[in-house]
Amino acid sequence: MYNTIMPLSKDELLPFLCSISEQYLTGIAIIDLEKNDFPFVYVNSAFSTLTGYHQEELIGKNIRSLTGKKTNSRNEKKLFDLFSKTDPFDQNIIHYHKDGTAFWNHLSYQPIKDSEGTISYAMIHCKDTTEQMLSRMLSKLEHEVYIELEENGELKDILQLITEKVERFYIQDIYCAIHVLQQEHQLDAIASGTLPLSIIQSIQHVKMNQGMDFNQNTIIKDYLTIQNAETKKLLTKYNISTCWSKPIYNHEKKLLGYFSIYIKNNSKLREIDIDFLNKLTPIIALSMKYVEQKQDLKRLAYYDISTGIPNFNYFYTSLVDWLQESYVGSILLIQPSEYSNIVDSYGRKFGDELIRQITCRLKSMEGINKDIIYGRFSSSSFILGIKQTNQHLNEIISDLLQVTSAPFTIAGREIFITLRIGVSYFDESLSVDESIRRADIALTNANYQNVVVSYFEAETDEKIQRELDILNQLRYGLKNEEFTVHLQPKINLETSEIEGFEALARWYSPVLGQVSPVEFIRIAEQNGKINEVDNIILKKVLHFQYERLSKGQKIVPIAVNISPVHFYSDTFVNDFISLVNKYNISPNLIRVEVTESVELFDYKKAKEILLELKKLGYESAIDDFGVGFSSLSYLQQLPFSEIKIDRSFINDINDADMHAVVKTIVQLASNLRMHVVAEGIETSEQYDILQKMGCTTGQGFYFHKPMPLEEAEKLL
């Protein structure tokens, strides 16, 4: 969404925003920025589903309708301050459903200008991010627990830290406590948040023992047997209704204790609460076994369990230390190309084994010393940091490649592998995350270009960002039919008459401007959008033909390009025929062009599709002939009626060798009774040569550039 949707007046803008908001699957609220309290003027159905409020309950109210006890007042004030500044922003805040349950709400705020440039309304995209925020909380808590273990190590202090943090930052309004199973099989409450331990100790909880069935997801509802009237008063004072207890087990399935949450105000225990408890108790288990497991905790924090090598956290922390000491150097992100095949063939543990063996060889090399840090980056890669000069970097890369000179033993077999390496640098001018991101981009580029080593280049980063922008806008472009058709005439080289057109897709994005087909077609193919692009162009061509037929005007065949990805889809023929029949266009007025490419590999299926089209009266052409794969071999197999010689051949037609190639193609097409079209004719000399060769049809700038439909009509 952008701050100028389209040139709409203020009165037109709100209905338009309401209309498009209702099409979103995410919650959207529209607020009035001209009123001091910024009331809702519209909320979509997804917003109602998210909050539990009906639309009519929220109209006229504002975002404060969703606040509750756990909502941070400073964040709420900041929210309204940002509303008044009318700049886009994102913010996380605790909000409440209608039933009183809290959730983390991620707000994306976007003010909207009308045609006068005035900002009267804003759209707020809302998303429930409770799960992500609780996961973030757990990660932070785990980190703080580890620090406390290192600095203090007293079990009570560590468990007290956990209860206080959970109470303070958890989304529900709760108390919590931790009971520990003592040697005499007694459960003692030794830590709580703000609820006094004396109250917890006076409550008779459900007894748990070592003989209970072990279940990772067991959670017990404790109805809190009251021992005396005084305890009952205390429970009433603290507004405690029920208690839920999660057993804490170690890896040997031994009961260590349980973590209890005391629910206030009769709130329900939700799935997300259960998931949180399931993830929290292993952290507590590790803390409770601190004395004998301190080394295990350190290993879990800094080492990869599957391989035993340092993990990404170790690498990241070490690199931060280096930067604080003003070191500079390089980051190498390394991936064995065969990892996925090994996992698919033998299982993930053998993929882990491959990473382990590579790093073991790495450690045994003479060049590996204190000036190098490494760790596992992802399941299929590991990362290396080097304090180095350029010469040192080159030596390390050479040593890395030497590691793969001998086979690796995987699942009892000897396997040779190859590496892909992405390289970036680090220094104080870049954050650790940015340096690593650049190495990741370089590795992606190494895989894309099929090279061993790729160094980060700003141009590659810009290209990736450009592709992301195009992909994002492609959805809007398809939805709003921003794609248009340009027609390039096909000229009879003997009579100079127009004997047909080729339809070419063009896209002007209000955000990106004119986007080249070279860019958007590839991205559309990669992301499953090319069918929609092809169909939009086909519809516009059919409509053009239909209009001219209706008016009794001159009409010539138009060829429509179909991506090989679309061509092979199961519904292509039926969809194509249905569209053509809808406009009642004769088959001889529409032709199918398929670009020769590596995708055109399934000769059997291609032949079936082309024969079916031919049976129905549709001619087909192979576009850009000569630049793909096995061209001559499949010409005899596939029933194309037309060959279009790629412009790269025509550009070099004065070259003797290329002249011979083009002449051969023309003769071959004639022998196979196929029509031949020369693309990219730009000079009279090329025109004359092709005429003498017997090429009957051509297109190119020498005759006409691709033109909008209106100009094509005038030309006809």
From TrEMBL:
GGDEF domain mapped to chain residues: 327-457
Domain of life: Bacteria
Gene3D superfamilies named among the record's database cross-references: 3.30.70.270, EAL domain (3.20.20.450), PAS domain (3.30.450.20)
Family annotation (CDD domains): EAL, PAS
PANTHER family named among the record's database cross-references: BIOFILM ARCHITECTURE MAINTENANCE PROTEIN MBAA, DIGUANYLATE CYCLASE DGCP
Protein name: EAL domain-containing protein
EAL domain span: 467-716
